[in-house]
Design goal:
Number of helices: 12
EC number: 2.6.1.11
Helix content: 25-40%
Largest sheet: 7 strands, mixed
Number of domains: 2
Bound molecules: pyridoxal-5'-phosphate
Number of strands: 17
CATH architecture of the largest domain: 3-Layer(aba) Sandwich
InterPro entries: AcOrn/SuccOrn_fam, Aminotrans_3, Aminotrans_3_PPA_site, Class-III_PLP-dep_AT, PyrdxlP-dep_Trfase, PyrdxlP-dep_Trfase_major, PyrdxlP-dep_Trfase_small
Pathway: Amino-acid biosynthesis; L-arginine biosynthesis; N(2)-acetyl-L-ornithine from L-glutamate: step 4/4
GO molecular function: identical protein binding; N2-acetyl-L-ornithine:2-oxoglutarate 5-aminotransferase activity; pyridoxal phosphate binding
Structural class: alpha/beta
Order of helices and strands: EEEHHHEHEHHEHEEEHEEEHHEEHEEEH
CATH class of the largest domain: Alpha Beta
Radius of gyration: 21 Å
Strand content: 15-25%
Main location: cytoplasm
Amino acid sequence: MNTTNSIKTDELLFPTYKKWNIAFEQASGSTITDQTGKTYIDMMAGIGVVNLGHGHPAVLEAVEKQLQKGWHASNFFHYEGQEQTAKQLTSHSCADLVFFANSGAEANEAAIKLARKHTGKKKIISFLQSFHGRTFGTMAATGQESIHQGFGPMLEGFEYVPYNDVKALENAIDDETAAVMLEPVQGEGGVIPADDSFLQAAETLAENAGALLICDEIQTGLGRTGAFFAHQLSGIEPDIITTAKALGNGFPTGAVIGKAHLKDAFGPGSHGTTFGGNPLAMAAASATLDTLINENWSQKAKDKGEALLKELQERLASAEVVKEVRGKGMMVGIELNEPAANTIGKLQEKGVLVLAAGPNVLRLLPPLTIDWEMLKEATALIEETLKR
Ligand SMILES: Cc1ncc(COP(=O)(O)O)c(C=O)c1O
């Protein structure tokens, strides 16, 4: 394997990430090249971020143009890019008002605050194996003990119930509940799609309890699962949607999109951010959304994702190490009956980048724009690796 051992960031950085032995040099379209000149097929898109591929020309041009005009004034100013981006997000969702943040966790943090402030209640129900972020609020919302460890006491008021279990949700929800918070497909938890009937029941149960439904679409949103937002495939209308990752196609930005009736809860002085919604992020987001919408990438992701899933299911049907291949759109999980880390390393040697989701699942989140030839090359290498 080509290695880049000269890079020793482990001496200078907190080791929060177990870094791979790959030093990033540059990225283009659906490939990443390291400092030794080795090129990889990118089947992870920066953890579901560059949905339009690396260095998309429309996004690049919009950011470069904005750089010349200025990149910070503050949220006291009207920023045309915020209006534009908010219009794109609200006209393609069931919600009406936007708060811009810098990341997924910040968007979820704002959503939790909005739900508590609006309802005047504190209980938030989320799900086992969920992932909502690393801040205190979003860590508390995350239904994974390993993520809480060592950081206690957790923010109080959070309850976790089994995912896709309507009865359990019915038992947990009551008049004290401010919100039900869920991912339409659990990403970090193992690429687990929610059943339509579960999402529909969550909507009804929340409404009956006077609670808000929050859909965390940070990983699933913006075309990834074959719809602009994944929950739209089940015909539900959450009160709050959060998005981030793909919003700026790699430029850090996030957003909370909420229904109009929540407006008063986020009045002046209630919540804020210095950098959220800055002109550069908005230029990137607006160009990304324009491209995603005008070129119909949600539908393309649906079609390509179905073909990818079928291809992988066929190729891996006889691989003993594979338990299940599942997914939605261009979000695919390959569940193994052994730890995924070993396979990830072997695939890197062959020039393919994939992620883990939980201990045993390989997670594929390629750019939606990846061409079929490259996808086939990657699936062949995955087959070769898993059928040792
Ligand atoms: C569903 C979901 N919510 C929230 C987050 C947190 O986003 P960020 O890392 O931008 O804070 C992630 C990140 O992986 C995510 O997948």
